[in-house]
Task: structure prediction
Amino acid sequence: MADDFHAFIQKRKEVARAYINGDTGPLKQIAATDSPASFFHPMGPVAEGAEQVLARYVDDATAFDAGGESDIEIIHMGHDGKIGYWVGYQNAKARLKGAVDAVPMRLRVTEIFRRTNGQWQLVHRHADMAEKA
Result:
């Protein structure tokens, strides 16, 4: 089971890279499909409920253009087979639509996952701006 969660976290890193390039397809595959779900946005109000959270993720991704980079720096993570989490930083260079240069971002992140029908799903994300990258 530990290898399963570690493999999922590697997939989560790929999902973050796709997202920072405006591609929400991979995130839709791991986003919670049932409530409860929540997203504490780094610069906006809290989204609650699986549909509302996914809608916020999709809407936010429209700000990004291809050519961005992202990596997850994990401070610690764990799971019990039903609930998993990671805490750390997301370091990114985002290419925002209409901007010439990539914008460096460093977010402090906590994510919580629930295992549903044998699959890990993102049920909570809390992200806020940390010091500059």
